[in-house]
Design goal:
- The mean pLDDT is about 85.
- The protein has about 270 residues and is mainly alpha-helical.
- The longest helix is centred in the C-terminal third of the chain and has 69 residues.
- The strands form two sheets. The protein has a two-stranded antiparallel ribbon. It has a two-stranded antiparallel sheet with strand order 2-3.
- It folds into three domains: about 60 residues, no CATH class; about 150 residues, Outer membrane efflux proteins (OEP) (Up-down Bundle), CATH 1.20.1600.10; about 35 residues, no CATH class.
- The protein has five helices and four strands.
Length: about 270
């Protein structure tokens, strides 16, 4: 912007060029506030997730550090058994097993119950009538209780339990399908973002070469400094896109770890 103003003073540029340069300056300044807000919000969120004060990690994370290293490639043929480590699948499986067990319990009510021991006690219509004597009741020897008049109730209970099994099975199948969907999506994102990252690294290298050549031309008097600044701005833009791709690649791997219930292990 300062160079453009100097060109205007020398009659080599117009006020429109100054306005365009000022727009670029203010747009860049405005973006800094958005970045600062996101950075501080992320630091506070990490502190809260760790069960500490929101500002606990401010000093530690104030120092710039590189992003986590992304694995060069995902192992081929990840076994589907890894999905059984997912908490939602394990929960759905346990709920299905419990519902199946309750069906057996409900069907057991069809069968008679046996008692091989005696029992004793007292009976009365009120507490004040519980006295020693004729109110004593005794049962000696084995007894059998047959559910003759409760068959309808038992059938209804069995039907309810069987419906719960079907519901649990549908939930389990849906959970497994969703797990496979999330895994496939995460695999696709990881593969494609890694390929995109490779292309963007090539773009940054080309931008760096263009900036270096522009600087050489300026030093030799073959180009003005605005050409150098334009090449530098292009390089900075491509570096920003590369950084966003690096972040997306890390997030894709994290999503894959979560989809697989904990990632994978590669044998040496």
């Amino acid at each position: 912007m300062r160079l453009t103003r100097d060109l205007v003073s020398a009659g080599q540029a117009t006020e429109r060029d100054v306005a365009q340069a000022e727009t670029l300056v203010e747009t860049t300044r405005a973006s800094l506030f958005v970045l600062d807000t996101g950075l501080k919000a992320a630091i506070r969120r990490l502190g809260t997730l760790l069960g500490d004060q929101p500002e606990a990690l401010t000093v530690e994370l104030a120092v710039p550090a590189p992003l986590p290293v992304v694995p060069p490639q995902v192992p081929a043929g990840l076994p589907s058994e890894l999905l059984t480590r997912r908490p939602d699948i394990r929960r759905a499986e346990a709920q299905l097993a419990a519902a199946t067990a309750r069906v057996g319990q409900a069907k057991a009510d069809y069968f008679p119950t046996f008692s091989l021991t005696g029992s004793g006690g007292r009976e009365a219509t009120g507490l004040h009538q519980l006295t020693l004597g004729a109110a004593n009741v005794f049962s000696i020897g084995p007894s059998v209780s047959i559910p003759v008049f409760s068959g309808g109730k038992i059938r209804s209970n069995v039907a309810v339990r069987e419906a719960q099994v079907r519901e649990g099975l549908a939930t389990y199948e849906s959970t497994v399908l969703r797990a496979f969907e999330e895994t496939e999506n995460a695999l696709t994102s990881t593969t494609n973002e890694q390929s995109r990252l490779d292309r963007l690294q090539a773009v940054v290298r080309s931008s760096q070469t263009a900036f270096d050549l522009a600087h050489v031309q300026y030093t030799a008097g073959l180009a003005d400094f605005l050409t150098v600044l334009d090449a530098e701005r292009t390089l900075a833009t491509n570096l920003d896109v590369l950084a966003q791709s690096q972040l997306a690649a890390v997030n894709a791997v994290i999503s894959l770890y979560k989809a697989l219930g904990g990632g994978w292990h590669v044998s040496p």
